[in-house]
UniProtKB/TrEMBL annotation:
<feature type="domain" description="ABC1 atypical kinase-like">
    <location>
        <begin position="89"/>
        <end position="331"/>
    </location>
</feature>
<keyword id="KW-0812">Transmembrane</keyword>
<keyword id="KW-0418">Kinase</keyword>
<feature type="transmembrane region" description="Helical">
    <location>
        <begin position="519"/>
        <end position="536"/>
    </location>
</feature>
<feature type="transmembrane region" description="Helical">
    <location>
        <begin position="495"/>
        <end position="513"/>
    </location>
</feature>
<keyword id="KW-0808">Transferase</keyword>
<dbReference type="InterPro" id="IPR050154">
    <property type="entry name" value="UbiB_kinase"/>
</dbReference>
<protein>
    <submittedName>
        <fullName>ABC1 kinase family protein</fullName>
    </submittedName>
</protein>
<dbReference type="Pfam" id="PF03109">
    <property type="entry name" value="ABC1"/>
</dbReference>
<keyword id="KW-1133">Transmembrane helix</keyword>
<dbReference type="InterPro" id="IPR011009">
    <property type="entry name" value="Kinase-like_dom_sf"/>
</dbReference>
<dbReference type="GO" id="GO:0016301">
    <property type="term" value="F:kinase activity"/>
</dbReference>
<comment type="similarity">
    <text>Belongs to the protein kinase superfamily. ADCK protein kinase family.</text>
</comment>
<keyword id="KW-0472">Membrane</keyword>
<dbReference type="InterPro" id="IPR004147">
    <property type="entry name" value="ABC1_dom"/>
</dbReference>
Amino acid sequence: MDRLAIYRIYRIVWMSVKFFSQVTLFQRRYKGRWTPVINDKWERLVTKQAKEYKRTALKLGGLMIKMGQFLSTRADIMPPSFIAELDGLTDRVPAVPRKEAIALLEEEWNTSHSDYVENLSDKPVASASIGEVYKGTLKDGTAVAVKIQRPGIDRILRADFRAMKIVIWLVKRFTAFGKQIDFNLLYSEMVDTIGAELNFLQELRNGRSFADRFEEMPGVRFPVYYDEFSTRRVLVMEWIEGARITDLAFIDANGLNRRDLSERLFRLFLEQVLDGGQFHADPHGGNILIKPDGTIVLIDFGMVGSISKEEARSVLKVVEGIIFKQYDQVIDGLEELRFLLPHADRRLLADAISRVVAAYESQELTQMDSFVVDRLLADIKRIVRTQPVQLPAEFAFFGRAVSTFVGVLHVLDPKVDLLAIARPRVLEWAAMQKDGEKSFSKDDALRIALNAIGPLRAIPQKILTYLDEPTRMREYMQIRDAGMEVERSRLQTRMFAGIVSVLSLATTFFGVWNEHIPLIATSGFFFIVSAFVFKGKSPK
C-alpha cells in the first residue's frame, strides 16, 4: 500500500470518528431539551462539520464526493446552511488539468481528439467524482457532451474502499448497527454499484434502457448516445441545454410551476419502481436537468439499481398500508422485504409507524414539537435496539436513491405531500396489474377495496387507540426509566473504550506514515487492549 493510500485512509477514518463522536456527545448533552436555542447550536455544529467535510472531499475526491452528494440532497432533514456548504460537490468538483484529460481521451481513441471532435471546450462544463464533461462538436456539426474518466480514479477508489472497511469495522465494534445491517454484504453492494460507474459502456446501455422504458412519458427526455465514439473510459452523448432541477431562480424566471415539477418528477421516479426493473440510484440535482419549457432531462446512468417485480409488489403493499393507514399491512410488506426478522413485536412496530405518519401529516415533525420529536426518536432507538429489525444490503442503494430524491423534491417544494401524490397513482397501478395471463388477483382486489374504505374502517381502532393511549404512555415511561441507568453505564463504557481505540488507531496510522516502529508497537498495544476491554464490558 503506497503512502497516498495510507494518507487517504487516515483522513477518512479520523474524520468519520470525529464527526460521530461530536454528534453523539451533542445528543447526550441536550437529550429531551430540544428548543430553538438548541436547534441553533445544532445547526452551527453541522455547518462546521459540513465545511470541514467539503474541504476534505474537494482535496481527496473519490468516495468523499459521493457521500457529499448524498448529504447535500437531504433538504428534508439537514439545515439549509449544511445544504449550502455541500451543494458545490454535486457537479463542480475541481477539475484535473485539461492536458491529462485529453491524454486519456486520445489514448482511448488511439488518435488525436481533433479527428473526431472540434471546438472542445477549454474547461470541463461539469466535473464530478468519476468523470468530467467537456462540450464539443462532431464533424457533422452535432453538439455533444464528452465525458472523460478521471485519470487514476480506479486507484483512488480502491484506497477509499479500504478506508470504508475500517469505518465499517468501527461501526460494527462500537455501535449497535451491526445487529441491524449486514455490513459485509453492504460493502459488496457498494463495490459492485459504485465500481460499475468506472465502465462508461455500461452507463451507455443503462441510459438507452431508460429511454426505451419511458419513451411515451410526456415532458421527459434522455440523451442520445454515440457508440462509435464511446469506450470504457470515454462516453459521447447528445448535448442538451438545461439548468439543474434545484435551480429555483431558473425555474421562477421561466414561469415554471414548482409543485407541478415536483409531482411530475415524483411520478417519474415512482414509475421506475412500480413495474420492477432498474431505477436511477443517484438522482441528485446535478443529474436532473430542467429545460426552459419545463421538460425534465435525466442524465448520468452510471449508478443504477434494480428491483424485482415481487419486491415491487411488496413495496406497493407498504405504500398502500401507509396511505390507507392499514399498518398491519405495512408490517406484512416489510416482512416480505426482509426488513423484519421473525418474532418482531408487530403491535409495537405498527404503533410507531402510525405515530410517525400522524406526525408527518400534522407537520409536527417540521415544527420541532419537542415532546413529539423526543418521544418518536426514543421509540425508534428502542425499536432498533430491541426488535429484530435489519436493513437488507441490496436495499441500501434503493434507500439512498429514495432519500436523495426526496431531498430534491423538498428543495423544489418544501410543502410537497408525497402521500397525496402517490395515492391516485398507486390505485391506478394496482388496478392495471396482471398476474401472468390472469387479471389482478382476487386477494389483491379485495385488499385494494378494503383499503379504499380504510378511513371508515379505522374509526373503531382510532377510538380504541385513543382510550389505550394512557396505558401505552405509562408502559413507555416505565420501560424508558428502567433501562436508563443500564443504558447510561453501557454508553459510558462504550464511549471510553471507543475514544481510546480511535486515538490508538489514529496514532498507529501516523506511525505507519512516518515509519516509526516504536510508536506503531505502542499504539497497537493500546488499541488491542481497549478493544478487549470494550468486548468484556459490552452487554451480551
